[in-house]
Amino acid sequence: NSGIPNRAFYLVATTLGGRLETASRLQVMNATEENQRYRTSAGGLPGLVVASDEDVVVGPAESRWVAVRLQVPYGSASTGSHPIHFDIEAQGGGAQVREKAVFLVPR
């Protein structure tokens, strides 16, 4: 079981490689009685990638805040608010969650 309360991204920077990057934290919760490895991916914009570690291990009956960096190629999206989503999937089968979010592209 996973949960993601932070759904909007507001601070955007340009990387040395010419990509737009934003960062936030996701709360991943494990409601099982065993360690779980979860993989994070994102979609909804052309070229959107998770630029931080995609995998996280959460202990039994624990929750963990995870820093996530997202990047898109500069110029790949128009200025404004763009709907995106996160997919959090337990490795080896089990829980999968899709959460809506927003990526803001500055002027």
Topology at a glance:
Layout: E1 8-9, E2 12-14, E3 19-29, E4 36-43, E5 49-50, E6 55-58, E7 63-73, E8 80-90, E9 96-105
Parallel strand pairs: 1-9
Antiparallel strand pairs: 2-3, 3-7, 4-6, 4-8, 5-7, 8-9
Give a short synopsis of this structure:
It contains no helices and nine strands. The N terminus is likely disordered. The protein is mainly β.
Distance between the termini: 37 Å
The residue-averaged pLDDT reads 86
Query: How many strands, which pairing sense, and closed or not: the largest β-sheet?
Result: 5 strands, mixed
Instruction: Give the proportion of residues in helices.
Output: under 10%
Reading side by side through the largest sheet, how are the strands ordered?
Answer: 1-9-8-4-6
**Separate helix tally:** 0
How big is the Rg? 14 Å
Structural class: mainly beta
The low-pLDDT segments are 1-9
| Helix-strand topology string | EEEEEEEEE
Number of strand elements: 9
The fraction of residues in strands falls at: over 45%
**Tertiary shape:** elongated
What labels describe this entry?
single chain, disordered N terminus, elongated, mainly beta, 107 residues, five-stranded mixed β-sheet
Descriptive report:
There is one protein chain. The protein has about 110 residues and is mainly β. It is built from no helices and 9 strands. It has strands at about 10, 10-15, 20-30, 35-45, 50, 55-60, 65-75, 80-90, 95-105. It has a 5-stranded mixed sheet, with no helix packed on it. It has a 4-stranded antiparallel sheet with strand order 2-3-7-5, with no helix packed on it. β8 (about 80-90) and β9 (about 95-105) form a beta hairpin. The termini are far apart.
